[in-house]
Write a structure and sequence with these properties.
about 230 residues, alpha+beta, five-stranded mixed β-sheet, 12 strands, cell projection, Cyt_B5-like_heme/steroid_sf
């Protein structure tokens, strides 16, 4: 996998992808994957790089056929021949519509098939916002996290805000599985927030036309007094 700027993650939020939006730092997402195309663009500077540069930081799933995972195709109205459908402009590794003697195919796999080289992770299907309250300092931070992440992965994100995040115990008010009450308990780092009993209630709020930020769950972190090195 191509090395991303910053820590390697299993899942990325759309916002994280959107911050990589220049020719020198170009990420895109499509069909659930996140791809770092910076090296590809540097190696293929020219008109074919222009559509990818214009789409840097964006989701380009609509460029591809979900069934084949290849760029979409259509029947050309002028020639009645099937060819790649690229209204955004032909991009790197897409062959020309007509045979050309100077078309170089030595690149091997087209970039969209070469996940080993370009894919750096997965795009979160749904994100949520949480608050993390440091009981020791009384500081509270709000962060967006993928719903698919385990708490240990969320803790890695919190390291950007607290270099000693690994020295804390994580607790939250969770629903008691044996009843309708809530209990304050330690969270399992190897489970997602949902699995820990901290559900994402945003869809419920949306169904009732309640602002999504009406209630944001709070995770409380308690100092363990062992100054772990990040």
């Amino acid at each position: 996998m191509a090395p991303p700027r910053g820590p390697l993650r299993r899942y990325y939020t759309p916002y994280e992808v959107a911050t990589h939006n220049t020719p020198d730092d170009c990420w895109v997402s499509f069909l659930g994957g996140v791809y770092n195309l910076t090296a590809l663009i540097k190696a293929n500077q020219g008109i074919l790089a222009a559509p990818l540069i214009a789409a840097a930081g964006q989701d380009i799933s609509h460029w591809f056929d979900p069934a084949t995972k290849e760029p979409k195709r259509h029947i050309c109205p002028a020639t009645h021949i099937e060819r790649f459908y690229t209204p955004m402009g032909r991009f790197i590794h897409v062959p020309p519509p007509e045979p050309m003697c100077d078309w170089d195919t030595s690149f091997g796999l087209p970039w969209w098939r070469d996940a080993k080289k370009y894919q750096i992770g997965l795009l979160s299907a749904r994100t949520r916002v949480i608050r993390v309250r440091n009981v020791l300092t009384d500081q509270e931070d709000q962060i967006e996290v993928p719903c698919e992440e385990k708490l240990v992965e969320i803790r890695e994100r919190y390291l950007d805000l607290n270099a000693h995040a690994k020295s804390y115990t994580w607790k939250a008010l969770v629903k008691d599985p044996n009843g309708d009450t809530h209990v304050f308990q330690e969270l399992d780092l190897n489970l997602t927030l949902e699995e820990n009993g901290v559900p994402d209630e945003t869809p419920v709020f949306e169904d009732h036309h309640v602002p999504a930020d009406y209630y944001i769950p709070v995770l409380h972190v308690y100092w363990n007094d062992d100054l772990t090195v990040a």
